[in-house]
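Dear Dr. H.,

I hope your travels went smoothly. While you were away I took the liberty of generating a structure for the chain from your last submission, since the lab meeting agenda had it listed for discussion. I wanted you to have the full record in hand beforehand rather than looking at slides cold. The sequence, exactly as received, is reproduced here:
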Amino acid sequence: MYFLQELEFIFVIGLLPYIHYIGWCLLIYAGVMKKLFQDLEQAFLLTVQVFATLERQNHKNWKF
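The corresponding predicted structure, in token form, is as follows:
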């Protein structure tokens, strides 16, 4: 389990140069969601639910 945390840390450090691009993607995403949903908070909550569901599926599949 500790090994996975180390990998996540390395992954985050690897993403540092791309934070600029990730920020732009988030801005574009927010703009698209605002057009689709009018209510940005509802769109955000929907996204969080989708990611939470994906995480749960991953944890079911990756039991050690």
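Two observations you may find useful: The two ends are 9 Å apart (CA to CA). The mean pLDDT is 75.

With kind regards,
E. W.
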